[in-house]
Design goal:
Helices cover 34% and strands 21% of the residues. By secondary structure, the chain is of the alpha/beta class.
């Protein structure tokens, strides 16, 4: 990738569903450069209300690429509500534009693209994700409810331990935020899942998940 490509790297999102809206909100929250091309006009007011970059395209099809330039550093996300449209857009970007940085629904990708050993297309299986989420609702209902009711937005962050107040303490000795969880702990070249009797040492890197307020509390506790 050239320096010019890196400077222009952005996320191009083709969508129109609530999933597109949630993604756009999270991209904005992370300060990412992106543009959403909407196929449904009724979604426009919601994007406008949240000041999210968007453009309504009617009809949304491959003609959009007559005016839209996709650079090699760009990430293309194809997430419309039509499997046929997803297939058409994904195939065009891959074959005609020779662009591999694509994320789309697994159910929308043709066997030809899936079987291509050189394809770098990443696929999201929404049925698998739904099953995993329902599993969490059954096995970890309190955690799921806490995360879902807090603006329906949660994310993952890696935080290095710098606080001497928690150095050598056990995980169970710390009052962690209720709307978040410790996921992974890294120490040197070792990676493990923290539990109540795990020691916390300065220099450890903790992977945490939670709402915005929970992540702020994690940073306060871990960084000092």
């Amino acid at each position: 990738m050239s320096k010019n490509d890196e400077e222009h790297k952005t996320i191009i999102l083709f969508g129109g569903s609530r999933a597109s809206l949630i993604l756009a909100e999270r991209f904005k929250m992370h300060g990412l450069s992106f543009m959403t091309y909407l196929q449904r006009k009724e979604m426009v007011p919601q994007f406008e209300a949240k000041s999210l970059p968007h453009q309504f395209v009617n009809p949304l099809n491959i003609d959009i690429f007559n005016s839209l330039k996709v650079l090699s550093g760009d990430l293309v996300i194809v997430l419309t509500e039509s499997n046929l449209l997803n297939q058409t857009l994904t195939s065009y970007v891959k074959k005609e534009l020779d662009h591999n940085k694509i994320i789309t629904r697994k159910q929308s990708v043709t066997h030809e693209l899936v079987d291509d050993p050189l394809s770098d297309i990443k696929m999201v299986d929404h049925e698998q994700l739904m099953a995993s989420h329902i599993e969490d609702m059954v096995l970890r209902p309190n955690a799921v409810d806490s995360l879902s009711t807090s603006f329906d937005v949660y994310r993952i962050e890696e935080i290095d331990i710098r606080s001497r107040k928690i150095h050598r303490k056990l995980v169970k000795e710390i009052a962690w935020p209720q709307t978040g969880s410790l996921v992974i702990q890294k120490r040197g070249g070792e990676v493990f899942i923290p539990h109540g009797n795990t020691h916390l040492l300065i220099g450890d890197q903790m992977t945490v998940i939670g709402t915005g307020s929970a992540l702020a509390e994690f940073r306060r506790l871990l960084e000092g």
